[in-house]
């Protein structure tokens, strides 16, 4: 869908029906086009399954009834740890239909992470894949959890999912759900500290439909989506899952693809070719790894490629443009929000930019006093608090609310600048900015330039304490295959960087490492490198 952005910006209106909720959307999709495929699933061994919108409705209602039989009531916290599985939607939708507060959790969590979350939000019910029950068993005695449902097999002390839904009715007469009722507690990635519990209301999904779908994915519920196959590679426990598979795929009634298997660039490229993926949403790490392959040898039906979560480097943008004539479009937002900035369909992409503000949100840049900053200056990305596209607080964490809701704005903690054409450029998280000899240096610019050198696969830049300069820029570098770290290579990279960036930004120290510390969602944890440097 081509968008006349200038017109849309003016005329955009939030249309959020009072009774909006995603289970009701699925009921309505099933009424209108029940035999349309909602989900094409494939696992690493080539096993395939499909679910139509009718199937989703039936399975959602059966699971909602099962939760009722177990005693789960409106507002109870239901946590899940699930790999990408054909039944994930049914489980998420069923819990929501029951009126529960869904607590999606990553299948990559460790026992201590599970213990933290279950206690933090006082979860009573856990829905966990058979391969992960051990993680929960290690800590279950130290949590408020009472009900344990296992998917995909059996386990001691757990009730099987197939058993709890067997014999349940295909209709669920649950509590009334409104757009303003609490829907979920989504924990943030924990890139800068402990994950934070973000409380969302049912309207969040409607905001995705109104913003992320048209202004990022380029689809709406009114389009003919019969030739489309959407693929968002995210895991089921991250906000990204709600940003795309639920917030775009399900709300618009599209057909989407879900793959259970580890990320491996060649496998993923093969899959895109075999399945005929038309719209892809992946993360920068994945794009960087795609770009290391011979993309020209793949024959894809790809029309759109999207990226979010971290800054997108110029290199993969160029590689995709060359091989597929598709320009990966970056979008920016948080667990706390919908897409606040996107390179919307049809925009003239400026590589390195997160794009422009999405309609209806009023995303802007402010200084410490809450005043808007001028073009060309660095400010904190902020959104007016009365906007429906953001969360309305952390779950029982008033001290966090106080820090982030300041005056008229929700403050994201991210710094950016805006050019004279209205494009936003990511500078870094407020905590990640390096101050060296009075200069403020965003790590991304340093990293982006480093990655454009052929010896560098990945890089992270942090401030390392220095007597005279306060800090110096230090880069941790993962080399591409075939290169080995040496003093000569350090010299070469430094000389290269002095050409690529303003000289004060070049990394005065470079350390070669095998891998960078990352969150389980794949984001670079500069906080770890920083504290390592401080010691
Ligand atoms: P935590 O809040 O626990 O430290 P987190 O902020 O990484 O973790 P998420 O909500 O998953 O948790 O990620 C949102 C953050 O990701 C943003 O605040 C921003 O720092 C970064 N981000 C998201 N999209 C982009 C993008 N397109 N470019 C640059 N950074 C991005
Ligand atoms: Mg955050």
Number of strands: 26
Q: What distance lies between the first and last C-alpha atoms, to the nearest angstrom?
A: 52 Å
**Ligands present:** adenosine-5'-triphosphate, magnesium ion
Please identify the structural class as seen in this structure: alpha/beta
* Low-confidence segments: none
Quickly name the level 1 CATH class of the largest domain.
Alpha Beta
Number of domains: 2
Keywords: ATP-binding, Ligase, Nucleotide-binding
Biased composition (Basic and acidic residues): 169-181
Organism: Haloferax mediterranei (strain ATCC 33500 / DSM 1411 / JCM 8866 / NBRC 14739 / NCIMB 2177 / R-4) (Halobacterium mediterranei)
Protein name: AMP-dependent synthetase
Protein architecture, described:
- The protein has 535 residues and is of the alpha/beta class.
- It folds into 2 domains: 5-418, Rossmann fold, CATH 3.40.50.12780; 439-533, ANL, C-terminal domain (GMP Synthetase, Chain A, domain 3), CATH 3.30.300.
- The chain contains 16 helices and 26 strands.
- The strands form 5 sheets. Strands 1, 2, 10, 11, 12, 13, 14, 15, 16, 17, 18, 19, 20 and 21 form a 14-stranded mixed sheet that branches. It has a 5-stranded parallel sheet with strand order 4-3-5-6-7.
- α15 (487-500) links the parallel β25 (470-479) and β26 (509-512).
- The mean pLDDT is 95.
- The structure holds adenosine-5'-triphosphate and magnesium ion.
- Residues 27-395 form the AMP-dependent synthetase/ligase domain.
- GO terms for molecular function: acetate-CoA ligase activity; ATP binding; fatty acid ligase activity; fatty-acyl-CoA synthase activity.
- Belongs to the ATP-dependent AMP-binding enzyme family.
- Residues 169-181 have a biased composition (Basic and acidic residues).
């Amino acid at each position: 869908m081509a968008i006349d952005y200038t017109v849309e910006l003016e005329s955009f209106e939030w249309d959020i029906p009072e009774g909006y909720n995603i289970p009701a959307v699925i009921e309505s999709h099933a009424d209108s086009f029940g035999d349309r495929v909602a989900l094409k699933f494939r696992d690493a061994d080539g096993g395939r399954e499909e679910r139509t919108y009718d199937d989703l409705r039936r399975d959602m209602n059966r699971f909602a009834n099962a939760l009722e039989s177990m005693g789960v009531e409106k507002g109870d916290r239901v946590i899940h740890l699930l790999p990408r599985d054909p039944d994930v939607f049914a489980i998420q939708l069923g819990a929501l239909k029951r009126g529960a507060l869904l607590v999606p959790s990553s299948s990559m969590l460790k026992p201590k992470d599970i213990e933290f979350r279950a206690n933090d939000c006082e979860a009573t019910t856990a829905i966990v894949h058979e391969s992960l029950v051990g993680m929960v068993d290690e800590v279950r005695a130290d949590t408020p959890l009472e009900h344990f449902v296992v998917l995909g097999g059996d386990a001691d002390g757990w009730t099987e999912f197939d058993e709890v839904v067997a014999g349940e009715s295909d209709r669920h007469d649950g509590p009334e759900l409104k757009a303003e009722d609490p829907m979920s507690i989504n924990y943030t990635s924990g890139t800068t500290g402990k994950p934070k519990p973000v409380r969302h209301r049912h309207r969040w999904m409607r905001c995705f439909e109104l913003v992320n779908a048209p202004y990022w994915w380029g689809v709406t519920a009114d389009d003919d989506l019969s030739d489309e196959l959407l693929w968002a590679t995210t895991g089921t426990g991250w906000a990204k899952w709600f940003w795309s598979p639920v917030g775009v795929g399900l709300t618009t009634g599209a057909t989407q693809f879900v793959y259970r298997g580890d990320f491996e660039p060649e496998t993923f490229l093969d899959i895109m070719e075999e399945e005929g993926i038309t719209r892809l949403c992946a993360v920068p790490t994945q794009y960087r790894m795609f770009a290391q392959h011979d993309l020209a040898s793949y024959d894809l039906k790809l029309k759109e490629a999207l990226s979010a979560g971290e800054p997108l480097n110029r290199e993969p943008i160029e590689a995709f443009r060359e091989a597929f004539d598709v320009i990966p479009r970056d979008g920016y937002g948080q667990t706390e929000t919908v897409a606040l900035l996107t390179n919307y369909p049809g925009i003239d992409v400026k590589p390195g930019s997160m794009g422009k503000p999405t309609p209806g949100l009023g995303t802007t840049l402010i200084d410490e006093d809450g005043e808007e900053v001028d073009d060309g200056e660095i400010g904190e990305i902020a959104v007016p608090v009365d906007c429906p596209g953001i969360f309305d607080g952390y779950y029982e964490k008033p001290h966090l609310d106080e820090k982030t809701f300041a005056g008229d704005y929700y403050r994201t903690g991210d710094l950016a600048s805006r050019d004279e054409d209205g494009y936003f450029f990511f500078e870094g998280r407020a905590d990640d900015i390096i101050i060296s000899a009075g200069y403020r240096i965003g790590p991304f610019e340093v990293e982006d330039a480093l990655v454009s050198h052929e010896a560098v696969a990945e890089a992270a830049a942090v401030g390392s304490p220095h007597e005279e300069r306060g800090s110096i820029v230090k880069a941790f570098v993962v080399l591409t295959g075939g290169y080995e770290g040496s003093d000569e290579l350090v010299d070469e990279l430094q000389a290269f960087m002095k050409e690529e960036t303003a000289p004060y930004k070049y990394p005065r120290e470079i350390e070669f490492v095998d891998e960078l510390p990352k969150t389980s969602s794949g984001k670079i944890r500069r906080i770890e490198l920083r504290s390592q440097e401080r010691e």
